[in-house]
Structure to design on (818 residues):
């Protein structure tokens, strides 16, 4: 099956935002064996949209639209698709009720233009939107498939993975596995993986780098489950043997989720003391539902006086070694452990920039401390990038050090 | 002039990289008054490229290509464009010599396929590449313009700004302004803006919603700067009069940056006490460079015991009213103000979900407390969405309440 991804909306075409939807959908489609031939982006313009639809119907089998399903007057993807295919729109009472109950639940007033979202083309299937009001639409028309998805990436992704993939899956079997790695560069990783990639390209192996971490995606194709599972298993085993230290998950978990699971296994409570990351570590950790089982508290000691008052860091230590130092990281972790009565305490101090670095303490220098009743360790690291990038890499590094510490306990 | 940006190459269409070239070119073209109607991305495939060129010639006046000008066999943008337009390629000796001298200068060996880059279509202008080997191509064909640029963003940007803009500049002026709003839904906003939007189409007004906030983009066109600036000013004034309370920035700032500026103006220090947002407020705030001028500390009191120990919340208050209550939010803010000696303290407690809601305390219920030496207020709110969305909206709400509090002081 050959696909085109059509992004409707001015945010993309005016350059306000990057087209991450097209990238995401292309990857996911590739993983289930559907080749994407074109990306097309256009404005909220009915005539142009009609032209793009007609074009797409001529050149591909599957058209996936994102955007233009909202309640406002310049949302009309559904209307123009229906018109172009010659399908009548009718009011679906189930959708109307579910939109109404969404508004009731959130104590907002439903305006009349929200009703627009409850109309769907005849012969189409509405696709549930678990976290928003705009339903998606699945249309089989002649020998073509058209899928209409909402524009907001979170809604689009959830809907696509949960409801659309089962509808467009091919008849051979595809299984994928994601191996998540940290602390290893993408180009070095590619060199390592070269031997593993076989000449047939099955399984296919691709790497996707994002700040600080690289995902390895292995996709195996075959005629039955045993064949595919064996292929995947063998390949994962080969990769594991090459980089055992750098893999933190085989189950698509974030590194903070891995830490959460390790803490739960050990029945440990944790607390964080953050300086340069400014609450990012606590914030990432508390995105995990149920984290209160293991997370007690976090202290963002941004000023020097707060480090002293909150964590019992000695004034003299800051004076002698500076706030960004191994010693201060140690005292932060120790002070936090003592005051909060948790099983394990993590501290971090560093220079996120952009200014205030010096020759022997450059921007990107960080110190991490980990304390338990039995042990106190510190890790020094130098990170690169702008302020936000350093904060993000520092938080990943902190979780990775925690992961290694907990595994080796 | 109406334009289409055509991105040729597998990196984009396989999802390996984001299409930053299309975004960059769209913004730059918009700034000089050229409207981009379409982005199209496709693989290195001759037949598909030809199809895309023919399509583009039918629907726009200016086609800008990036990618496919390199020396390898799957670089053929120039060849396919020439073939489609019926133009012969000829060897340009100047280009050949400049490629040769580039190789001499960089001590690299020139391979025979680099000569391919010295061929240009008859009647076209080569465009100089100051930092690479592939020249760009400028073609005027019938009433259309086709511009071929290299794919690497650094080469593309330099070439576009230095050599292409002078060739395609329009004689009218375009200016845009962004008005950032919070606490008002997109569809309700559209109803309010209806009179202003319907007036003439110039300036154009568009709304872009992302979780919790809506941006209003105003774009004005005219013959000279005074005319355009006046149009923008008048429109912004009209919008301001309709929703004075909801606008937090005219300068593309985030709401936390606005709060940062207000605190700096008042020479105030701030501290945060977070429960349901788990450090997100502190984390967003500390993404701002130089925030240490106003930010003292943050306390993430996730467990009940930490609320008692860190913020002096009374055990009896939690027992009587629950951790998610107006009373606890008040005591958190008050306790934080007293212990940290800041000028203003913000607290937040709520239910981010996904579970543990009840009938009178549903998921999404939050309480915000703001304390100064003179004043202590609380705000109750009900938010919708999944855990992450509630946390995000809660943090925006907290910054907005701070903004309003500081403005009305």
């Amino acid at each position: 099956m050959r696909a085109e991804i059509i992004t409707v909306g001015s945010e993309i075409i005016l350059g306000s935002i990057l087209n991450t939807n097209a990238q995401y959908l292309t990857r996911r489609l590739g993983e289930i064996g559907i080749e994407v031939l074109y990306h097309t982006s256009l404005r909220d313009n009915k005539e142009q949209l009609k032209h793009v639809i007609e074009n797409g119907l001529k050149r591909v089998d599957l058209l996936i639209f994102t955007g233009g399903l909202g309640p406002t007057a310049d949302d009309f993807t559904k209307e123009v698709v229906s018109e172009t295919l010659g399908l009548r729109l009718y009011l679906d009472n189930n959708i109307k009720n579910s939109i109404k109950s969404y508004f009731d639940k959130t104590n907002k007033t439903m305006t009349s233009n929200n009703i627009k979202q409850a109309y769907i083309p005849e012969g189409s299937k509405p696709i549930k939107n678990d976290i928003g009001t705009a339903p998606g639409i699945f249309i089989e028309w002649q020998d073509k498939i058209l899928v209409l998805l909402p524009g907001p990436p979170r809604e689009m992704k959830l809907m696509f993975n949960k409801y659309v993939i089962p509808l467009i899956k091919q008849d051979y079997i595809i299984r994928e596995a994601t191996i998540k790695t940290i602390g290893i560069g993408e180009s070095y990783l590619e060199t390592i993986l070269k031997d593993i990639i076989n000449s047939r390209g099955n399984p296919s192996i691709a790497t996707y780098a994002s700040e600080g971490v690289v995902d390895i995606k292995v996709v195996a194709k075959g005629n039955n489950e045993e064949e595919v599972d064996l292929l995947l298993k063998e390949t994962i085993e080969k990769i594991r043997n090459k980089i055992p230290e750098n893999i933190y998950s085989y189950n698509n978990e974030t590194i903070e989720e891995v830490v959460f699971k390790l803490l739960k296994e050990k029945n440990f409570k944790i607390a964080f003391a953050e300086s340069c990351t400014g609450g990012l570590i606590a914030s990432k950790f508390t995105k995990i539902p149920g984290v209160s089982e293991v997370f007690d508290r976090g202290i963002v000691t941004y000023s020097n006086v707060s480090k002293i008052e909150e964590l019992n860091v000695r004034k003299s230590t800051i004076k002698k070694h500076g706030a960004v130092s191994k010693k201060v990281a140690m005292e932060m972790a120790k002070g936090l452990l003592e005051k909060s009565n948790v099983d394990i305490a993590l501290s971090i101090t560093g220079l996120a920039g952009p200014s205030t670095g010096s020759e022997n303490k450059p921007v990107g220098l960080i110190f991490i401390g980990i304390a338990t009743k039995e042990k106190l360790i510190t890790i020094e690291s130098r990170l690169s990038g702008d302020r936000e990038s350093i904060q993000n890499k520092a938080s990943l590094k902190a979780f990775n050090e925690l992961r290694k510490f907990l595994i080796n306990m």
Remarks:
- Residues 255-407 of chain A form a domain with the Maf protein fold (CATH 3.90.950.20).
- The mean pLDDT of chain A is 91.
- The radius of gyration of chain A is 26 Å.
